[in-house]
Amino acid sequence: MKIGVVGNSTRKENREILEQFVAFLEKQGYETVIFSTNREIDGVDILIVLGGDGAILHAATIAAQKRIKMIGINYGNLGFLAEYERPEAFEICEFLKKVEAGDCRILKRSLLELQLRGETHYALNEVALQRYFDEKNPYETQILKLHITVGDGSDDISGDGVLISTPTGSTAYSLSAGGAILTPEVPAFLLTPICAFSMSKRPIVFPDSEEFKISVTHGKTLVLVDGRVVGYLSEGEELLARKAPFAAEFPIRKETDFFRKIKNKLNK
User: Fold this and answer.
1) Which helix (H) or strand (E) holds 261?
2) CATH of domain 111-245
3) Which one of 160, 175, 215, 259 has the fewest CB atoms closer than 10 angstroms to its CB?
4) Catalytic annotation on 257?
């Protein structure tokens, strides 16, 4: 079994941790490779990410496309997506044996596929449309108006924007914006308005078989994928979001408990 490892190697301390961890795996007999960037991820059976949720998120969209299983070790702050905490890093080998033998559960997390101006992007958490603020014209876009079509229905939302979240993303930005928590494998997406200009505009759960078409009817919006700006939309422009044709695969330990993690991680 070939193992890839990715982590922040820009700082000396982090680079030493990365090198020590790889040396440990090789001593246990595993063939390993260090990826300096997420773009390099390829040709391995398992990817281990040393980092926080951001590092895991952005590596996951690459690994998922190449059917590479992922294990996160929390070297960040929250670590909601991580399977191990930092002090447990060198206890991972027994788990790796179970993964190799197929003796553990694989949690499949759905992704969103975004079509924007001829480009395709993938999100493990959410696609966010946020009101664009132009400091040169501060009174031009004080409110954002969007027209949203899902299946045979449609609606208009005015406010600061909207989120389309996966079950994984339901515990992230969407939760802060008032959305519900979805368990990781539920086949659904969550549409969550951001500071809507109407009390009737509430978060809605849709089957993940639906496609979302969103167009701008007033203002200008930034488009973010898992927190990264990938473009913008002006009045009259449209994007399409739907379920990606692949999932991110996370091997999980028998003792992993989603509800305990919510209690421990999201109540700090």
Assistant:
1) helix 258-265
2) 2.60.200.30
3) 259
4) no
What is the DSSP secondary structure assignment for residue 44, as one 8-state letter?
A: -
The string of pLDDT tens digits covering residues 54-104 is 999 999 999 999 999 999 999 988 899 999 999 999 999 999 999 999 999
CATH class of the domain comprising 2-104+253-265: alpha beta
- Angle subtended at Cα 137 by Cα 131 and Cα 140, rounded to the nearest 5 degrees: 55
Give first-to-last CA distance, the chain, whole Å. Answer: 37
pLDDT band at 133 (very low <50, low <70, confident <90, very high): confident
The three-state secondary structure class of 190 is strand
CA dist., res. 212 & res. 225, Å (int): 15
Q: How far apart are CA 144 and CA 160, in angstroms?
A: 6
Query: Is-same-fold flag (2-104+253-265; 111-245)?
Result: no
Q: Which residues of 25-39 are buried (b: 16+ CB within 10 A; e: fewer)?
A: beeeebebbebeebe
Sign of the alpha-carbon dihedral angle for 64, 150, 134, 200: negative
Q: Which of 42, 45, 53, 155 is catalytic?
A: 53
